[in-house]
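User: Teach me something about this protein's shape.
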Amino acid sequence: MLVVVLATAGGVGYAPLAPGTCGSLIAVPFLPLLAGLRTRSLPVYAATTLLLVTVAVWAAGRAADLFGGHDDSRIVIDEVAGLVIAGLFVPGTWLATGLAFAFFRLFDVLKPFPAGWVDRRVRGGLGVVGDDLVAGVYAGLSARLALGLL
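Assistant: First, the predicted structure itself:
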């Protein structure tokens, strides 16, 4: 079923250990590629990012219904979307990508406001993905700040 393939990022969500981290790793190679796209065509980059987030919200919501849980650990498309959002704020270097990844995992676990609120209060796909989008913004800004200090 397509929705399960998308929501689990091609089955990565079935990883026995740290499926969220594994899901985030799926997005790592895309950050430099997307940054390259951003420099060539900002409208195409924005449309691609918006499409990815939209698909993530849809797939996460449908998969949550199928799996019977609000944010089932097998759903990792939210981590992919969150890390892509972090990439909005950083250049397309591997250092920037690594920092964005590390900060994203930290904020995804800690769920600083309003991420925790979104996770607890918002239902459906937006609730599953929304906290990761917030974590992505925090991660991207933190990585950008860290890069400026290096």
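Now, about its shape. Residues 19-149 form one domain. DSSP finds eight helices and no strands in the chain. If you'd like, I can walk through any region in more detail.
User: That's plenty for now, thanks!
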